[in-house]
Amino acid sequence: MAIFQLAVAPGAKVDSRFVESMELTVMNESSRTFDMLVQASHNGALFFESLQELKPDSGANFPSVPTNYTPFNLLIVTNYFTYDTTTVTLIVRSKGVLLAIFTEKDFDRMP
User: Fold this and answer.
1) Contact, 41 vs 21, CB < 8 A?
2) Which of 7, 15, 59, 76 has a beta carbon 3.0–4.6 Å from 27's, enabling a disulfide?
3) What residues form DSSP beta bridges with 19?
4) What is residue 106's three-state secondary structure?
């Protein structure tokens, strides 16, 4: 199982005070199909959740998920045994203006 986690909070690597919305893309670069769960929560309450099956060499895109400048936790869980074949791109915006692009390398990886 591959688990990616990113805390978006004031003063963090991704500072929530500047993030009005996010766009998330997760790609399966393996030769096997796997399932992926994406959850975004604020103070333990989910405000976004998606469960997808990703075929080989395919991906899922979640455009314009509002975060409204509040801290949140982003969690991505796959049922695949390695991180090496999953790529993640997180784009954060404020008032539609691109602020930054983060990748799977910016996420914490949980055993």
Assistant:
1) no
2) 59
3) none
4) helix
